[in-house]
Design a protein that fits this description.
By secondary structure, the protein is of the alpha/beta class. About 35% of the residues lie in helices and about 25% in strands.
């Protein structure tokens, strides 16, 4: 039986007087792909940003591999094995692909060559463009670079915020195939995705967030066939 790698208990997040996340609880098991789906403003990004330490929670507890990481500094959380691929990619446009990748490993003092080869095996186009400025890459290539940069910290849990946003359908399929491959190679995935259909197809477990609360839970397959989910998020 797989172990719980991430446990969220009664998580609450406020921005001033606005309550973005209203006491949600969920688990992620080691080796799973878990997706959070919901409309804009449901609290999905706030949840990931709080887990990664970018936002301080106003209540609740976050446990990673048995250790309380609630409110810890983002650098400490990355060191422990949790990495976020942010929405909008946020690469450094004036730095080369290789420089961007090395920034993902800024906390490491060891040899990076093996991990660079791993990233290049997942994203051969990044190897071809390793000396090219990040800002000259296509949208899909920049997303690959953002994922590759996150992998350079050797995460145990990779969180991804809208990886398919603004990408062409063919590129989206490539990105989702790569997410599955990363997962097969031992990285647990927590994914936020507006393309609920694609996310649920690859997810072991899905959670539906509505206005800061979890309203539905099930396997990816169960949620794909749920009438309420189909009507609200799958255009069916």
């Amino acid at each position: 039986m797989s172990e719980t790698i991430l446990k969220i208990e009664d998580l609450q997040v406020h921005y001033g007087g606005i309550e973005a996340v209203k006491g949600i609880s969920f688990d992620v098991q080691e080796g799973q792909i878990v997706t959070l789906i919901g409309s804009n403003g449901a609290g999905k990004s706030s949840t990931l940003r709080t887990i990664s330490g970018l936002v301080k929670p106003s209540g609740g507890k976050i446990t990673f591999r048995g250790e309380d990481i609630t409110g810890k500094d983002p650098t400490q959380i990355v060191t422990q094995g949790v990495t976020l691929v942010p929405e909008g990619r946020r690469i450094f446009p004036d730095m080369t692909v290789l420089e961007n990748l090395k920034i993902g490993a800024y906390l490491r003092k060891d040899d990076l060559s093996e991990d660079l080869e791993w990233v290049y095996s997942l994203f051969p186009r990044l190897k071809e463009r390793s000396w090219q400025a990040g800002g000259t890459l296509s949208g899909g290539e920049q997303q690959m670079l953002a994922v590759g940069r996150a992998l350079m910290s050797r995460p145990k849990l990779l969180m991804m915020d809208e990886p398919s946003l603004g990408l062409a359908p063919l590129v989206v399929r490539d990105i989702f195939s790569i997410i599955q491959e990363i997962n097969k190679q031992g990285v647990t995935i927590l994914l936020i995705e507006q393309n609920a259909n694609m996310a649920l197809k690859i997810a072991d477990v899905g959670y539906v967030l509505e206005t800061g609360r979890i309203t539905l839970t099930g396997s990816g397959e169960e949620l794909l066939t749920n009438d309420a989910v189909r009507a609200a998020y799958l255009g069916a």
